[in-house]
Amino acid sequence: MNINAFNNLSYGVYIITTWDEERPTGCTANCAMQITAEPATIAISIHHDNYTNKCIEKSGRFAISILGVKSNPSIIGTFGFQSGKKVNKFDSVKYDVFSNMPIVTDGCAYLVCDVINKMETDTHTVFLGKVMDADVLSEDDSMTYSYYHNVIKGKSPQNAPTYIATERIKENKTDKYVCSICNYEYNGDIPFEDLPDDYICPICKQPKSVFKKQ
Q1: Which CATH number do you get for residue 183?
Q2: Which neighbouring-strand residues pair with 68?
Q3: Which residues form the Rubredoxin-like domain (predicted)?
């Protein structure tokens, strides 16, 4: 099987949010799609190990914040590479509450859904949600997963549905510097060794010291 075929599927970059009791929480996702138009129904895929999965199950609701190409890429790292069980991700990310759901402010649109059904796979839960509210937040173009990889040079969190399809592809065995927290690969014009000591990862905002030579 040629896993490169999966790269031709279309994905976006989303922040899936819900409530952990009275505390907002969420995770980064790349798999969300409209299933029907009337009534409007959305499907999302969330890994079993993601704390957000358990919170959606308990609350019966979820929201999708659709990120745009001008959204701060650090949001992807904040929600994608640490657990909401241990960290309040919204401490560093601005949000509003629409239809009683937390929505990331730095996005281009949002959808609020009530869970109406679900399907379990070996690794992920596919939640079906009836759309209860939706709105456009900005005129920014939505960020595609291709843009995230090819322009921002971001990598998939290990729990992402596309992780196997993208991160196990063998690459050229040349020296490169990769963030050990979020797998961001530095591809700047300045040699990594010559970067200032206060350089931080553009995705997860960790210091230069966490980068490893590969």
Answers
A1: 2.20.28.10
A2: 142
A3: 174-214
Same domain flag for 200 and 132: no
Q: Mark whether 77 and 114 lie in a shared domain.
A: yes
Number of independent structural domains in the chain: 2
Residue 190 belongs to what domain range? 175-213
Of 26-30, 154-158, 168-172, minimum mean pLDDT range: 168-172
Give residue 157's pLDDT.
53
Do 124 and 46 meet the contact criterion of CB atoms below 8 Å apart? yes
- Long-range CB contacts for residues 40-43, cutoff 8 Å, separation at least 24: 40/130, 40/131, 40/134, 41/116, 41/128, 41/129, 41/130, 41/131, 42/111, 42/113, 42/128, 42/129, 42/131, 43/126, 43/127, 43/128, 43/129
165 assigned to some structural domain: no
Q: What is the identity of the amino acid at 122?
A: D
Do 18 and 87 lie in a common domain? yes
Residue scoring higher pLDDT (198 or 106): 106
pTM: 0.74
Which residue blocks in the chain are alpha helix, DSSP H? 51-59, 74-80, 145-150, 163-167
Task: Give yes or no: residues 121 and 183 share one domain.
Answer: no
CA 147, CA 22: separation in Å to the nearest integer? 34
Q: Which residues pair with 15 in a beta bridge?
A: 28, 65
